[in-house]
Amino acid sequence: MDSAHIHGLLVLAFFSLGMLWVAVPMGLAMGLNPFMVACIAVPCSILGAACVIVLIRPLRDWVRKRYSERNKRGHLRLIFRVWRKAGLPGIGLLGPLLVGPPPTMAVGLLMGAKPAKLLAWTSAGILLWTTFMEVSFFFGKTWFS
Known about the structure:
The protein has seven helices and no strands. The chain is an all-alpha fold. The protein has one domain. Helix 2 (20-29) packs antiparallel against helix 3 (34-55). The radius of gyration is 17 Å and the shape is elongated.
């Protein structure tokens, strides 16, 4: 493996910490092995999501105190309504693609989700969307060739 591939893998790992939807297509566009891209993007995205668990506690306590569900008004009502409808599976599966794993974890934890369950659903979403992007890239590349 030459230095260009190592550099590409490090860049991929960095972007995977927060932006899965950027990291996977970028790694594939750089010509890296799809299996290698998945093996780096998935654990790094899960690591980025897990870091939020540790960093969010003080903010979560402040938000819970200030905006408890009995104190909801305006736009907060919409957030709580979406949380009740989509629940943990909806947030965990859709969030990694739409906003990235760390913001998904932050929103879920601020809404009161249990960290272990939220991390499990977010990890499932990361796996789902990584697989989807790699398959889409493969078929798109063969279709345009």
